[in-house]
Amino acid sequence: GPGKNIFLIKKELKKKFGFEHIHLTNSATSAMEICALMLNLGKKDEVLMPSYNYNTTASSFVRTGCKIQYCDIYEKNLMPTFEQIKKNVNKNTKVIIIIHMQGLPIDYLDKLKNFCKNKKIILIEDAAPALGSYFKNKPIGSFGDFATFSFHETKNYNSGLGGLLVVNNKRFKKISDLVFDKGTDRTYV
Predict the structure, then answer these.
(1) Cα–Cα–Cα angle for 177, 109, 88, nearest 5°?
(2) Which pLDDT does position 1 carry in this prediction?
(3) Least crowded by CB within 10 Å, which of 32, 66, 84, 189?
C-alpha cells in the first residue's frame, strides 16, 4: 500500500524513465492481470501474443474468457516479425502483447505502435526484464497503452519479488487506480 518508500520509488521511476501513471505491484503477473481486468474482454475478443512467452502472460487473459491467439516466432529473436503479427490480426483482435525478450526491444516497435493505433487495438508491452532498455532513445515501457515489468530476483532491477504497471493510455488511468486498489478509490492518499 501507500507509504514513504513506495512514493519515493514511484517518484524515482517517473523521473528516470518519464512514466507518468504507474502502479507498483507484487509481480509482473499482477500487473498483467490488472491490464486484463481493465479491458472488459468478451468471449469473441482475441488477444494476440507470441507463442514463446511466460505462462502468466496468457493466463492473465484466459481468466476473462477471451480467446488467446498465438503468433509464430522468428528464431533470430524469439519474437514474431511485424508481418506475422499483421497476418494474424482479424476483426476480433482487441489486444496485441509484445514481449521484450531478455530485455531486448523488437526492431519494429514504432511501426507496431502506429499499426495498433490505426486499428484501435490495445498494445501491451510485456517488458518483464527490460527496465532500463531503450528503443530509439525512448524507454521501453513508453510505447504501449500499458507496460508491465518484473522486479523478480532474476531481473536487472530487483526487489526479490515485485512488479510495475505503466499506464500510458489516459483513458485507463482512473480504472487502473480502481482495479489496482480492488475497487476502492484511494487517489486522495
Answers:
(1) 90
(2) 59
(3) 189
Question: 181 φ, ψ to 5°?
Answer: -95, 25
The C-alpha R_g of the chain, in whole angstroms, comes to 16
Q: What is the mean pLDDT of residues 7-19?
A: 92
Cell output for 185: 478509490
Distance separating the N- and C-terminal Cα atoms of the chain: 10
Q: How far apart are CA 147 and CA 166, in angstroms?
A: 5
For residues 128 and 141, what is the distance between their CA atoms, to the nearest angstrom? 10
What Å distances lie between residue 79 and 33, 41, 56, 85, 175, CA to CA? 22, 24, 17, 10, 30
Taking only the tens place, the pLDDT of each residue in 93-109 is 999 999 998 888 999 99
The answer to whether the beta carbons of residues 129 and 155 sit under 8 Å apart is: yes
Q: Rounded CA gap, 27 and 31, in Å?
A: 7
CA dist., res. 3 & res. 149, Å (int)? 21
